[in-house]
Amino acid sequence: MAGQTKKERNTQRRKRRWGVEHKAYEMGKLCGFEVALIMHNPENGEYYTFRTTDQTSWNMDQIVSSVPNG
């Protein structure tokens, strides 16, 4: 990302985020997986979430608490 303007970095991040979310969607649809993504942008502190299920039992707190600490 060196030498890029902020606008170029944001465009690249947006496209890559869409790509990751699309792959997660495919894993859920084609393979029957329940997929949850949590992405954090340290530059602006924003979190982005994506999940392949609409179950209300899946909320961010439950997902984060179930992730093993590594």
Structural commentary:
The protein has helices at 6-31, 60-66; strands at residues 36-41, 46-51. It has 70 residues and is an alpha+beta fold. It has one domain: SRF-like (3-Layer(aba) Sandwich). Strands 1-2 form a two-stranded antiparallel sheet. The longest helix has 26 residues, at 6-31. The radius of gyration is 14 Å and the shape is globular. The model has no long low-confidence stretch (mean pLDDT 83).
Overall mean confidence score, pLDDT: 83
The CATH level-2 architecture is identified as 3-Layer(aba) Sandwich
SSE string: HEEH
Low-confidence stretches: none
Provide the CATH topology: SRF-like
Span between N and C termini?
27 Å
Number of strands: 2
Tally of individual domains: 1
Kindly state the percentage of residues in helix. 40-55%
Q: Would you state the CATH class? A: Alpha Beta
Provide the structure class.
Answer: alpha+beta
Q: Major sheet: order of its strands?
A: 1-2
Q: Tell me the strand percentage band.
A: 15-25%
Q: What is the CATH superfamily?
A: Transcription factor, MADS-box
